[in-house]
Write a structure and sequence with these properties.
8 helices; 5 strands; three-stranded antiparallel sheet; two-stranded antiparallel sheet; about 240 residues; alpha+beta
Length: about 240
């Protein structure tokens, strides 16, 4: 779809002629033509001006429905960026201290310990039988925000800490953020806080911090302080039925 058509559909204005993005468009088309992606949309801005908007491919592969200017995408882990912005707003307001221990806001995490066993030897052990040691220091909000607090995601089937996450149903949709934090408090960290980095459930814990420090449910906080001020009208946790 031509950039102008895509912008017209979305009700956007593109300031053209600033630069030539044809090579980028060709590279994006190649991803679709080779079957790596069903569709792709790119947006380039300069300040608040849109200088290039390009879409290619199908938004509904089975029904052969082409990409449209108002197509809604799933954010996936880009939600971590929004969560970080919410937390940093509270830092600016003096309601959240990045160098404070997590337990100062989430007492459920006051007695965290660190896994100290051999993953291979412990592959069949239950959580209560794992060897642990005390934290050298309590994990901080800053370490949480940088994925270095010791949490994991539960994706590694052979590691006992990840298996403990799976057994506790960490990451399942039926749990509230408060439920997740309460269950994490009973599972050892995978490594000493500040000594490593691992992509993890940390952003979910940070979302719970936003709730505790703001006094609002996480979704309501995001709507009131980020989505509505920025006019992000199509950003939510669920797609309304009339936009399916």
């Amino acid at each position: 779809m031509a950039p102008g058509d895509l912008a017209d559909e979305a009700g956007l204005t593109v300031t053209s002629g600033v630069a030539d993005f044809s090579q980028m468009h060709a590279a994006m088309r190649d991803y679709v033509d080779r079957g790596h992606l069903p569709m792709v949309m790119t947006l380039v801005m300069q300040g608040e001006q849109i200088i290039d908007l390009y879409g290619y491919g199908q938004m509904d592969h089975e029904r052969h429905k082409p990409l449209q200017g108002d197509t809604i995408f799933r954010l996936y882990s880009n939600t971590k960026l929004v969560t970080a912005v919410a937390a940093l707003q509270l830092v600016e307001q003096g309601r959240l201290d990045v160098d404070a221990p997590l337990a100062a806001y989430l007492p459920e995490l006051a007695d965290l310990r660190v896994y100290a066993g051999d993953p291979q030897a412990d592959k069949d052990k239950v959580t209560s039988a794992l060897d642990t040691e005390p934290c050298t220091h309590p994990p901080t909000v800053r370490e949480l925000m940088s994925h270095s607090a010791g949490f994991v995601y539960g994706w590694e089937p052979t590691h006992p800490v990840d298996r403990a996450y799976h057994a506790a149903e960490i990451g399942r949709g039926h749990l509230t953020l408060a439920d997740v934090v309460a269950r994490l408090g009973r599972i050892p960290l995978a490594y000493q806080p500040g000594t490593g980095w691992q992509y993890s459930i940390s952003s979910d814990v940070l979302a719970r911090l936003v709730e505790v420090c703001s006094g609002q449910p996480f979704d309501r906080y995001l709507h009131a302080h980020i989505f509505e001020p920025l006019q992000m009208r199509d950003t939510d946790f669920h797609v309304p039925a009339d936009r399916h």
